[in-house]
Specification:
- By secondary structure, this protein is of the alpha+beta class.
- Helices cover about 20% and strands about 20% of the residues.
- A four-stranded antiparallel β-sheet has the order 1-6-7-5, with no helix packed on it. A four-stranded antiparallel β-sheet has the order 2-3-4-8, covered by helices on one side. Strands 9-10 form a two-stranded antiparallel ribbon.
- Strand 2 (about 50-55) and strand 3 form a beta hairpin.
- Bound molecules: zinc ion (ZN).
- Zinc ion (ZN) binds near residues 249 and 270.
């Protein structure tokens, strides 16, 4: 599943190619993804320059000159390809945006958990139903050590589950929560309220460090994710614990990485380096 660094990688790749472009025609091949797919019926999306491409949490927001936004979530397996208009359509290409330049932007999503929706002008983005409950952006100044310390106060839920709660901090999914907890030396099942403030400060820094490192590597390519035009993210080779159950820990060189289930998701940790 694409996480924040993957979505940001897509944004950075798409933005320079799309800003200033116009959609001349939108074609959809299925009636719905996670929600109804009605973008082909909205003429206001056509013939308007794309003025910006933003990301909030794992949502991409294409801003058009007339104030309309196209909101996209990649779900479990969504990806974008920008190619020549005569390039053959692939299976699971569900939406096509023909561009004034003659190229075509295609949205591909085998599992169809993604979303493509329209936000009309005049609707404050922060109040949109998908966006209004979102917590701090982890790489912004809004996310401080204090944000994390406050959020953990008196909480009995495991710290890994708290990190993955979008109301606290957005976009820290399964891979990066596991990796940040490893870097901070904190076991994922530790009740959040029992972790001292000093350790939470380390964890705050670890979250940023792991996300920035992943971003620099172009994300982690696992299973269904691929960035624009199929370039692979290189972060998988930097993973300390995620997906490494049964392997020896590369830091302490003695313990074996463990895998447990938390809230239905796999967590990975080193029983020596994390406590
Ligand atoms: Zn270790």
């Amino acid at each position: 599943m694409p996480e924040l660094p993957e979505v940001e990688t897509v944004r950075q790749a798409l933005a320079p190619l799309l800003i200033g472009e116009h959609f001349t025609r939108i074609i959809t091949h299925v009636p719905r993804l996670r929600t109804s797919l009605i973008i082909a019926d909205i003429p206001q999306l056509l013939h308007q320059p794309v003025t910006a491409l933003y990301r909030r949490a794992k949502y991409l927001l294409f801003e058009l000159d007339n104030g309309y936004y196209l909101l996209n979530h990649l779900g479990m397996s969504g990806s974008w390809r920008l190619e020549e208009a005569d390039a053959p359509l692939q299976k699971h290409d569900h939406a096509e945006f023909l561009l004034a330049s003659g190229r075509v932007l295609r949205y591909h999503d085998p599992r169809r958990f993604g979303m493509l929706e329209v936000i009309p002008p005049g609707m404050p983005l922060a109040g949109h139903s998908y966006l209004q409950h979102l917590g701090a952006e982890p790489l912004s100044d809004d996310f401080t050590p204090q944000t994390l310390i406050q959020a953990c106060r008196n909480k009995t839920k495991p710290i890994k589950n708290l990190l993955m709660d979008n109301r606290v901090v957005v976009g820290v999914g399964n891979i990066y929560a596991s990796e940040a907890l490893f870097l901070a030396g904190i076991k994922p099942q530790t009740p959040a309220g029992r972790i001292a403030a000093g350790r939470l400060k380390h964890l705050h820094k670890a979250i940023r460090d792991v996300l920035l490192a992943a971003l620099q590597a172009g994300g982690t390519t696992i299973r269904s994710y691929s960035s624009l035009n199929g370039r692979e993210g290189q972060f998988a080779r930097h993973l300390w614990v995620y997906g490494r159950a049964g392997e020896q820990c590369e830091k302490c060189q003695r313990a074996i990485i463990k895998q447990i289930k938390q809230a239905g998701r796999s967590s990975y940790y080193c029983p020596v380096c994390q406590h």
